[in-house]
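We now fix the convention by which a protein and its fold are recorded. The integers have meaning only within a learned vocabulary of local backbone shapes. A complete example follows; check for yourself that the lines match position by position.
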Amino acid sequence: MIIVDTALRARGAAGKPVQFGMYGAGFMGRGIANQVLNYTPGMRLAVICNRSVAAAIAAYEDFGAPRESIVEVRTPGELQDAMARGLFAVTADPAVPAAAEGVEALVEATGHVEYGARVTVLAIEHGKHMILMNAELDGTVGPLLKERAERAGVILTGCDGDQPGVQLNLLRFVESIGLTPRVAGNIKGLQDRYRNPTTQAGFAKQWGQTPHMVTSFADGTKISFEQAIVANATGMKVARRGMIGLEHRGHVDDLLAMYDLDELRALGGIVEYVVGALPSPGVYVFAEAHEKTQAHYLDYGKLGKGPLYSFYVPYHLTIFEVPLSVARVALFGDRVIAPRAGPVVDVVATAKIDLEAGAVLDGLGWYMTYGQCENYDVVRAQNLLPIGLAEGARLKRNVAKDQVLTYDDVELPAESLACRLRAEQDARFPAGAVDRVA
């Protein structure tokens, strides 16, 4: 943070702010717009791409941009002209921000797998860095997209502010002081796999979010994607399908003795979550020292006698931290979180209700499926269906409630780019050919 804020101030003082574009003008996109327009010197949100141009205009105008300073653009050239004139641009065409010169990075803030796949491929093809607020896309085809980005000489990364990025920052700190992370955890307030948009409508209205999005938080799908991308970035695995998921109403420090250290070592560490613990809604890392001198000084620092030591961040601040991710990428070439190599953990589709043959599956956080983490080698061996591909798939047979779906259970939508990318990824990364931590 000290380096990033100083560098941004220098760009601002030089009259050369970091100019970036954003896909999405929903709940998260609006928050980012407010943060950059009003509180992030040295950075400029040059263009918002959204299917509804009116919503993109509102994301500027509601947070202080005069209406006359906002223009709709339809070509990369028009966007470049708007930037040169100091105007804010909006567009419905995803290719415009990707192709325009002078846009230093892009943010994907829709959380939709198929749309996210299309705009991320466009960004990579046009040589643009991409910062994902889209764990769902990353957890489905992130390893392939990261490899494509590297070949194109650009960066694909997740972001600060969401729990995965906060975990990776904490993991990097723990490793930097010479300890070995054994558990990377996410703290949840609620886990109920059978929540749906009807049950979550009131909560969604309270916070100005969509019911299906907050349902994905409640039914475990979102946290599964978040922990899957932490696993893919570190080589950690899950101890069992769905993760262990302890319930604990005290502090995360109390959990140190609740994991089997030999199992943690054998798996190369695990990704995990806990329901009800403090500090909420933060993250935690349990790490192991290597020898008695480290242990002695950790004890002196009031972290206890081991063998595991607790580190945590008591919050994650979503939109407040995303601009810092843009700066890390644009100014320092530093990824926040990205797959190390091939997939380690996947998120598989599981029936939320009894499903009948012929039904077309709805999307993430809706009525028909929820996601669970599973190790990639198991997913491949059992031909399990990634939930990121489930939307729009037609069931070939009945599937009982809580049964995990397989590719044999469905007919996938033929036009889906995400499905094509996933098939390419599976061919590129056979099960077992995964770089894991020691």
